[in-house]
Structures are given as C-alpha cells and as structure tokens.
Amino acid sequence: MKYNNEINRRKTFAIISHPDAGKTTLTEKFLLFGGAIQTAGAVKSNKIKKHATSDFMEIERQRGISVATSVMTFEYKDHLINLLDTPGHKDFAEDTFRTLTAVDSVVLVVDSVNGVEEQTRRLMEVIAMRKTPVMVFINKMDRDGKNRFDLLEEIEKELKIQLHPTTFPINSGKDFKGVYNLAEKNLVLFTAGTKATEDDQLRISDLSDPVLDAKIGKKDADVLREDVELIDGVYGDLNVDEYLAGNIAPVFFGSAVNNFGVKELLDRFIEIAPTPRSRETTQRQVDPTEDKFSGFIFKIHANLDPKHRDRIAFLRVCSGKFVRNTYYHHVRLDKDVRFSNPYSFLARQKDVIEEAYSGDVVGLFDTGNFKIGDTLTEGENFYYTGIPSFSPEIFKEVVNKDPMKTKQLEKGLLQLTDEGVAQMFTQFGGNKKIIGCVGELQFEVIQYRLLQEYGASVQMNSLPFYKACWITSKDPKKLEDFIKYKQANIAEDKDGHLVYLAQSEWFLNTERTNNPDIEFHFTSEIHK
Ligand code: G4P
Residue 50: pLDDT above 80? Predict the structure, then answer.
C-alpha cells in the first residue's frame, strides 16, 4: 500500500469511435486542457489516414510517428491521466481491441448525425465483455443531427447499455444554443465559432427562473424545462457504482471541434472514472495497491528502421512500482530481465523514466523477448488473463517464393504474429501456413515487412474462409471425430489450440447445430 497516493491520482482510459466521429478532435481538446499541447492540430498531424486502402507505406511511416502518440500522459487538476490511442483504421481493429485490455475505462464518441456505426458496435462488444465503464460523448451537435431522444434510444438499443444523460442539449445544428448540465444545474451557452469560457456559464438552480427565457428565448426555455423534467423522471440521479460496474453510461452532448461540452465531460471524468482496478490473473486477483510490481504486455510496435530489428513493447503496470534497471521475472520465459531505457509517453515526446506506477504504460525496448500477453512480476508465477485474440475475417495461405529463405520466413512470421499484426494457423496434419487478419491492409504490411526485415519473399493466396473459431469439447472422442471429418477446415493456432475455419456463416451454423458437444469460441484467451 506504499504507493496509494500515486495510484489514486491515476486514470487510464481510451477514446474510441467510428472513424470521423471526432476522436482525434476530442483527444486534442483533452490535451489542451491538460496543457500537454499548446496548439490545435498537433495530434491531427499524426493520425493514420483513415481512407487509405492500399497506401501501406504511408501507414508504416505513420506507425513510426504514432509510437509517440500511442499513449498520451497529461495532468489535469492534480490527476494524472493516461490516454491510450487506438488506431482509426478498421484494418487495425485488433490493435484497438488489445488496447482496451490495458485501460480502466473508455470514452465513446458518437456522431450525432450518423448515430451508432459499425465499428462502434464491435468495440462495444469487447467493452461489454470486459465490463469496462463507459462515458458517451455525442459529438457534432452544431450539425443538424438526429433527434436527441431518438439518439439516446438508438445508442441504448444498439450498444445494449443503459444511458444516463449528464448534460442535455438545447437544439442542434444552426439552432444549437448550448448544453444544460443536469448534475451541476448550470447552462453553458454556445456561440458558433467561439470557444466556451466560464463567462458563458449560467448557473440556474431553478429552471423556472425567467433569466432562462431571457437568455435562450421562451420557446427553447420551455422545451428545456420539459426535457429536464422528463429526464429527471426517467433517469434520476446517476448511480456511480452502476457506472463503475459497466452497467450505466453517463452521456454528454457537445461539439469537440468547438471545444464545447468537453470540459463538462473531462470534469466529470476525473471525478468518477475509475482509478487503476484490480485484475484477474491465472492464480489470483491482483490489487493495484500491492507493493510488488507486476504488469503485462498488450501491444508491440516494430521499429521502422530495417537495420534495427528491435521493437517497443507496451507494458501496462498493474501493481506496485516499476523501476528502471531493476530485474523482473518474465514469467513465460522463466528468466529475469531488466530495462535500462524504459519510456514514458508525455504527449508527443518519449522520455526515459525512472519509475512508473499502477495504471501507467511503459515502453520497453525489445529484441524479440516479448509477445502479447506476457507478464512481468517480482518473482511470482502468474499471467494476467482477459487478453484475447479475436477471430480474423480474411485468410490467406502464405507461399514461400524463395526456398533459400525458409528459415527467415518462419522467423519473420513468428515475430510478426507475436506483435499481433496477424494470427497464424497451421493446417491440421499438414504444413500449410495460413495467415488470418481483420483487414486487407495487414496482408500488405506483412508481405512488405517480411521482405524488408527478413528478406523473405512470399505470395499470399486467398482462402475461402470467413471466420476462425477455436473449438473445444468436454468429450475428447467427439472432438477427435469432428477433426477427422472436417480435416480440410481444421488448423492449429500458434499455441497449438484447435480452430475450425468456416467457409460461411451458414456452414458455421450448420456445424454448430450438428455438433452440440463441440463448443465454438470467437475469441481465444491467451492465458486462462
Ligand atoms: P476521428 O479521429 O474520429 O476519425 O475524427 P476527427 O477528430 O478527425 O474528426 C473528423 C471530422 O469531423 C474532422 O473534419 C473534424 O474537424 C470534424 N469534427 C470534429 N468534431 C466536430 C464537431 O463538433 N462539429 C463538426 N461540425 N465537425 C466536427 P475533417 O474535415 O475530416 O478534418 P479537418 O479538415 O476539419 O481537420
């Protein structure tokens, strides 16, 4: 419990959204509030282009820059906030899923015009699985969006989470006049094109106060009164425990680009968002305030320079204090390792750090010792759990074009899949190597990097599969039979777990119906 003060002032979270909803803009406003950047546009320039479909060189270049912005640490009102970046491009969705294992809460940005979009749905599935506390920011209220009550209903239904409005808007688009803070009982008025200041705040303890009519006009004042009465009646006060349990999501309305409604979100965030939480391991639950250090690797980033094969492994500290140049136990390799140049991420520059606490993310130089899910401790043998691999959606067979480079190819494939760029499967009973990814772009990245970094030239042949499901059964005989009959569709993942490669949803459903004793899993826990 030596480090309670440090740990209790930390909040580690991620902002997630469908591309274009405003994640980058909101991130930037948070950093401006935290004083971590001085000018707007600083984060923007680092953004991976969302619409590039084949420009992987550009993506690679951006990946290099994005190491620095992968974690943004800033202070706000005595709190230390670690904001973990998630890639915008859908082909890197798996990277985003993994990042979600390293945070204690998330802020979800929804575009008020487009509502809930595909990528948001998938991210929310992961969040729901982990019971991660969520706050929702409904952005772009300065545009003519959907009706606000309809939006709330849509989000609740689509994301299967109960919402709790914390701020509520007065109109939208050109009639957008501001947001009323239901918790603080004050009104913040919006003037297009200007930044909200403290002066724009109108404290109204009683909504029947005629000053409201004078400020926003009788019609809008009456609508607001009705809205607030309705919301108070339906939602009541926020139950913070339910938020922390991942059952209720506080909602805020605003306009990130105008820096409007953002402060309300940030202020409430530091007030109620969770500090580092206890986490499950294969042995026991580990409390963040324990004295002894432990943490896990959730992301690995390759060095762009092909002359240097080293990588940066991202360590989430889960308990105790991490200290530079100290030996820690690498559980999987059963060896002690130490780090002379661990990095912290203060906004855009990387700094060597001496120590880090629960909730922090540290960048470790790695020469190939780490893979995702690895755990470091002060000696104890356990792994952090809940770091799954998700089923890929596109599959290709890797064909070696240069038999002289077979060894290099094997090494390259192993290392790239350790990084989590893709998943590798080996055809059951054969030797065919199958790569599974979430997006086409990853195949291009793999092909390019195999050649550049390992000198291995490959061809990728598309395979007609649509999903990989990990299969298990309580009845070994049934599993054995299934494998025998479905051999062409069976493969092993890198850890030797069996997967069934389904050609289509129809095939998958048919097999599930015909084989009730076989369990089909859409994620594979790295450590159980
Ligand atoms: P993302 O990271 O989620 O992909 O979204 P990003 O912040 O890049 O925002 C996407 C676009 O939406 C940007 O416009 C941004 O300026 C705009 N935007 C963000 N917040 C608001 C808002 O509150 N209201 C309105 N009207 N627009 C907003 P862009 O044209 O793609 O880029 P830029 O040229 O403005 O930089």
Answer: no
pLDDT at 201: 62
pLDDT in tens, 385-414: 888 777 888 999 999 999 899 999 998 998
Nearest CA, atom 34, ligand 1: 44
Long-range contacts of 471-478 (CB under 8 A, 24+ apart): 471/498, 471/499, 471/500, 471/518, 471/519, 471/520, 471/521, 472/498, 472/518, 472/519, 472/521, 473/517, 473/518, 473/519, 474/517, 475/517, 478/515, 478/517, 478/518
Q: How far is the CA of 149 from the centre of ligand 1 (A)?
A: 23
Please write the tens of the pLDDT for every residue from 344-363: 765 445 678 889 999 999 99
Amino acid at site 471:
I
**Is residue 22 lining ligand 1, measured as CB closer than 6 Å?**
yes
Number of domains in the chain: 3
Q: Is position 98 within any domain?
A: yes
What CATH number does the domain containing 485 carry? 3.30.70.3280
pLDDT of residue 289: 94
Q: Does residue 399 sit in the same domain as residue 331?
A: no
Evaluate: CB of 139 within 6 angstroms of ligand 1: yes
Cα gap 100→106, rounded to integer Å = 8
- Reported as a pLDDT band with limits 50, 70 and 90, residue 175 is confident
CA distances from 373 to 24, 314, 376, 380, 386 (A): 27, 10, 10, 16, 9
Taking CA atoms only, the protein residue closest to ligand 1 atom 6 is 22
| Residue having the nearest C-alpha atom to atom 33 of ligand 1 | 44
Same domain? For 250 and 366 the reply is: no
Distance 279 CA to ligand 1 centre (A): 35
C-alpha pair distances (Å), 235 with each of 35, 77, 191, 274:
35, 29, 29, 22
Residue nearest to atom 31 of ligand 1 (CA): 20
Q: Which of 116-130, 132-146, 174-188, 205-219: highest mean pLDDT? A: 132-146
Please tell me the predicted confidence (pLDDT) of residue 274.
97
Nearest CA to ligand 1 atom 27: 140
Looking at the structure, tell me whether residues 363 and 507 fall in a common domain. Answer: no
For ligand 1, mutation pick of 25, 113, 123 (most atoms within 8 Å of CB) = 25
Residue 378: CB within 6 Å of ligand 1?
Answer: no
Please give the average per-residue pLDDT across 102-126, as a whole number. Answer: 90
Are 256 and 283 in a shared domain? no
Cβ of 499 below 6 Å from ligand 1: no
One domain, residues 304 and 361:
yes
Query: Per the structure block, which two tokens stand in for 353?
Result: 């750090």
Give the pLDDT confidence of 238-256 residue by residue, as tens digits: 999 999 999 999 999 999 9
Domain that holds residue 399: 394-521
Task: Identify whether residues 17 and 58 lie together within a single domain.
Answer: yes
Is residue 329 pLDDT above 90, yes or no? yes
Which atom of ligand 1 is found nearest the CA of 18? 3
Q: Is the CB–ligand 1 distance for residue 24 below 6 Å?
A: yes
Q: What is the CATH number of the domain that holds 169?
A: 3.40.50.300
Does some domain include residue 145?
Answer: yes
385, part of any domain: no
End position of a domain, from candidates 377, 403, 430? 377
Same-domain check for residues 251 and 354 = no
